[in-house]
Structures are given as structure tokens and as C-alpha cells.
Write a structure and sequence with these properties.
Blueprint (H helix, E strand, L loop, with lengths): L18 H16 L3 H8 L3 E10 L5 E12 L5 E8 L4 H17 L6 E7 L7 H15 L8 E5 L5 H15 L20 H19 L8 E5 L3 H12 L3 E8 L6 E5 L6 H5 L10 H6 L3 E4 L10 E4 L20 E3 L8 H9 L3 E3 L1 H4 L2 H15 L5 H26 L3 H19 L4
Parallel strand pairs: 3-4, 3-5, 6-7, 6-10, 10-11, 11-12
Antiparallel strand pairs: 1-2, 2-4, 7-8, 8-9
Helix pairs in contact: 1-3, 1-14, 3-14, 4-5, 6-7, 6-12, 6-13, 12-13, 13-14
The structure holds glutamic acid.
Length: 439
Amino acid sequence: MNGALTTLDRRDTDRVRTPLSEVQAQFDRAAQRLGLDSGTRQLLRSPLREHRVAVPVRMDDGSTTVFNGIRVQHNDARGPFKGGMRFHPSADADDVRALAMLMTWKCAVVDLPLGGAKGAIVCDPRSLSVAEQERLCRGWVRQMAQNLGPAIDVPAPDVMTSAQHMLWMLDEFETIFRAKAPAFITGKPVGLGGSPGRSEATGYGVVAVLLEALTRLGLEPKGATASIQGFGNVAQHAATRFVRSRGTLIAVSSWDAGDRQAYTFRKASGVDPGDLSQLTDRFGTINRLEAAARGYEVLPGSAWLEQEVDVLVPAALENQITAANAPRIHGRVRVIAEAANKPTTSDASLLLEERGVVVIPDIVANAGGVTCSYFEQVQGQSNYYWTREDVLRKIDSRMTSAFAAVHERAEREQVSLRDGAYLIAVERVAHACRERGWV
Ligand code: GLU
């Protein structure tokens, strides 16, 4: 059976502008403003390395399925490559390249001593048994082990991968090298090398910078309203902290567990994230029949974007806010916090900028996850674990100071927050490449 050999290479004709070309265009703007020489530009526009693997997996029925995977290592001038591994049925090589590049800038903007990478395996874990998922994780590590490691490239969870997947990957790696290596991978379960606070870190960090942005706009978090796209790990924790900060969550959009279509679940009086998460599985899919029975209005998937709220939080996948749907965003929206990676296309960003909407760019907004991953490595390497409060406090302080620096740079240079963030990040990475004598 070869059903999983699908979309890693999308043809050019599929899309006029790929996420990679968009991220490159964003980089080019920063490079131009920073006056980078052409060698540095060439180096940073593309990944340093890419690894393609085919992973044969024995299925529960005795057949074999071959899963395609890719790991893109964009840049390691500031430290080992770092970035998540996603499982997704329509994972695409160009998207992974774009996401790897984003990781380089993300680590740099929060000043972590790490580079950028990203990987994907074309699969739908929702259709695999637990044992098949374990064999897939172990098979991937067997193919990739020589190119991974605490001082080489450190994977982490991403879309549809969990702490359990990370632990199987770690166990395979340690078996191959016959030594414990907790810093090989991050996002492990707490108690088995994971950092306290890792599962909430990304969502928690999103709200840390969102609160900063609201304050700077003169808006009180208390009484601010929000609509969120997605209800996976990042969205659930962002929702929880937003509501704890006395904001009101009006709508959440996610997949239905039955027909796997997207729906928006709305409660004008305020969604209780704890209540909704009881109807949600570990991939973030929500049971819409139960949600309706509990008093949620069930609307089309795209309705999350049209809500009359102060804040939108896209926390699902790439390219969700586009030039085509941006005009449907309500005039009340003041801030968009990009909890997902690359949820807004560059055309949509321009439209939103013209409307005066503040977009907190992904590389700042969702950097809480990789910041916690870095703390997890530090704790793992010293074999001494901090408290959850310590970890979250350190994340808060990194995130708010990174946001302040980005805000200051954007004001000073009269550019958007995204451009401000890129200027800081690209400058740091280019400096590291130069100092190492690469360019
Ligand atoms: N997948 C997350 C991200 O995109 C976390 C990466 C990591 O911790 O290495 O930022």
C-alpha cells in the first residue's frame, strides 16, 4: 500500500505565490533595509540543508505503508537547528522550507542561541492506531538519527504531534546511540524530561504579547473580546489565559470530530475554554453535536473571522487570512495575534495595515513554545528541573522584552511590527554568519 505518498512536492502551478516565496519576500525587504550584501542574502534566503526520507511502517493489518518525510535545516549560525515535526496529510516541501526559515527568525528575535528547522511527515495521525504512530516515530528517527542531536538539530512538537510522539522519538534515538540524551528533542512529557509549562507555553506566550499590545493601544484586557481559529494545544491555552485575564472569548473554530469539516462554535455570553475542551479530542477536533447540545451556536468554519470582536487569534494553519477574506474582518478588530505560523498572507497583511489593525507577527506571538523548548534543553542538560511558575515567569519576561524591542524598532523605523521583528532577527543571524566567517 502506498497511499501516503502524496503531496510533498506541489507543482508550481498550484499557487501563484507559495509561502516560501512570501517569507523570502519578507526577508528581502529586511535585507534591503539592512543593506546586506548579496552573498549573505543568498545564504539566508534558502535552507542550508534538506533531508528527505521514506519511512516504511508495518501496519496493524500486516501490510506496509511508506510515509514520506522531510526535514529542512535552514540556518544554524546562532546554535543548533531547532523546530517542530508536524504530521499532516497535505504537508508540502515548500511550506516546510518557509516554516524552517521562520524558525530561524523566531529564535533570533527572542534571542535564543538556536537556529531554525522544520520537518513534516505526510500522514494523518487521526487515521493511525497508537501502535502505528509509535512505529512511524521510531522509523523516522532511524532514518534521520545521524542528522539530529542536541548539538545538531533538535525536533519538537508541531501540528498534530504530541509529547508522546516526542518520547517515542527520544527513546529510539537513545536506543541507537546507547546513551541518555534528553536534550535531543523537546516537548517531552513532564516527568520524563519535559519542562513544566511546555504544553501551555505557546498559548501562554501569545497572550503575554497580546496583553502588551492591548495596553499600548490603550485597551483594557478586561472586557476585550476575542475569536480564535483552532482549538488544538496552542489555542486552548491561549483561550484559557485570555479568559483568566478577564477577556471574553466569543467564538472558536475547529474541526468536527465526525465529518472533519471546520465549524465555528459561538457563545455570545462567552466561551468557557475548560467546558469546550471537554468536547475536544487530543487533535483539537470538537464534537459539534455535543457542542450544540451545550448551547453553542454552530456556524460555518469561516465565521470565526467575521465576529464583532477586538482581537482575532488565528491558531491553526498557514494562509488562513487572505486578501480574499480579509475584507470580511469586522471593523471593530484592533489586534490580530498570529498564534499559528504564517496564518496571514502578505497581501492580507497590507490590507490590514492600511485599516490600522495591529498584527502581532507569528515569529514574536508564538515564540513562547520554542522559548520553553530552549528552557527544556537547559534543564535536561543540567538534569535539574524548575517549577512551572519559574518557567512561565521566564517565558513572560523573554516574550515581553522581545515584544518591547520589536515595538520600539517598528516605531523608530516607521514600519509594521512584522518588519520590525524581521529587522532585529535578520540582523542577528547575518551578524552570526559574518562573525563565523561564512560570508
Ligand atoms: N513547533 C513550534 C513552533 O513552530 C515549536 C518549535 C520548537 O519548540 O522547537 O514554534
